[in-house]
Design goal:
There is one protein chain. Helix 3 packs parallel to helix 5. An eight-stranded mixed β-barrel has the order 1-2-4-5-6-7-8-9, surrounded by five helices. By secondary structure, it is α/β, with parallel strands linked by helices. 31% of the residues are buried. Strand 1 and strand 2 form a beta hairpin. The protein is built from twelve helices and ten strands. Helix content is 51%, strand content 19%. It binds ligand C2E and magnesium ion (3 copies). The site of ligand C2E has 24 residues, from strand 2, helix 2, helix 3 and strand 6.
């Protein structure tokens, strides 16, 4: 009996694996098609100066709309696009589109607005990246200083020559860098010495638990102080209420991003937001 059960478990496991692979394959096919058909949309989420409550910048976030009106989360399809070699094509479109949107908004009178774009480590390893970014900026007639690239710690820690070269060249162009999701995963902070970022984004997981456990308060305070010491601007991700916004202001955090101000919205919703937080 035990043996039979065992076999059944294995069988179920195999079936589950087959199903997972089939799902993945399906999603991959859809992804290819969606990229060909330019079926993606960029949404933008405000980053707000905590003292003045002004919107300084917007982060471009990919959305993949489905026929039923729902979205597939980028957390689901970005890793897949990385695996099947589609991320550069998708990422290049994001860069171009985000620069155009920022330039359009600047022309509508929000002349100081900046835009932040997430970059995958796979894109970052592509030698063409610098050219792609130059083109995106030129096409949009957007100054490089208006563009911030968000990189994750895992990329910065893979301290290869190519990564260093890309970082240097892109810095020379005048774009700035943010370290995204800071505090997740890596305890080795050595990379902060050699890498000249301008911004450190404290991961949402710390901010969310602020309301639950006061133990995270000294931790966030320490991160903010360290960032200040290194000359980095701090952004708190995932602020959902006024109390958290006030607490982070008190802790000396520079900017906030989160549902408290706004979720990511389509470009045409931004002017109204920028008016009220302008
Ligand atoms: P991220 O770069 O850390 O982006 C912030 C995520 O937090 C976004 O999720 C945003 O919608 C969500 N968020 C913002 N404020 C709040 C809040 O107050 N509460 C909660 N619960 N969530 C909040 P989203 O849009 O689903 O994106 C997930 C991740 O997918 C991003 O994390 C980023 O790593 C990746 N991603 C999105 N767009 C792109 C892209 O164009 N290229 C690349 N390579 N990755 C992207
Ligand atoms: Mg980001
Ligand atoms: Mg983040
Ligand atoms: Mg995140």
């Amino acid at each position: 009996k035990a043996k039979e059960d065992g076999r059944n478990t294995v069988r179920q496991y195999d079936d589950k694996l087959d199903q997972d692979n089939a799902d993945k394959f399906n999603l991959q096919q859809h992804l290819r098609q969606a990229i060909r058909q330019r079926a993606f949309v960029l949404y933008y989420q405000p980053q707000v100066d905590l003292r003045s409550q002004q919107i300084i910048s917007v982060e471009a976030l990919l959305r993949w709309p489905q026929p039923d009106g729902s979205f597939i989360s980028p957390a689901e399809f970005i890793p897949l696009a990385e695996q099947c070699g589609l991320i550069s094509e998708l990422g290049n479109w994001v860069l171009a589109e985000a620069c155009l949107a920022c330039a359009r908004l600047r022309q509508q009178g929000f002349s100081q607005l900046r835009v932040a774009v997430n970059l995958s480590y796979v894109q970052f390893k592509n030698e063409q990246l610098e050219l792609t970014i130059q083109h995106a900026l030129l096409d949009a007639r957007l100054p490089a200083s208006a563009l911030e690239l968000e990189l994750t710690e895992s990329l910065l820690i893979s301290d290869t020559e190519l990564v260093q070269k890309q970082l240097n060249n892109l810095s020379k162009l005048g774009v700035t860098f943010a370290i995204d999701d800071f505090g997740t995963g890596y305890s080795n902070l050595g990379y902060l010495r050699s890498f000249n970022a301008t911004t450190l984004k404290v991961d949402r997981s710390f901010i969310t638990s602020l309301g639950v456990s006061s133990r995270d308060e000294p931790l966030i305070q320490a991160i903010i102080n360290m960032a200040k010491g290194l000359g980095l601007k701090t952004v708190a991700e995932g602020i959902e209420n006024e109390a958290t916004a006030q607490l982070l202001t008190r802790l000396g955090c520079d900017e906030g991003q989160g549902y408290y101000w706004s979720p990511a919205v389509p470009e045409n919703k931004l002017p109204a937001l920028l008016q009220t937080h302008g």
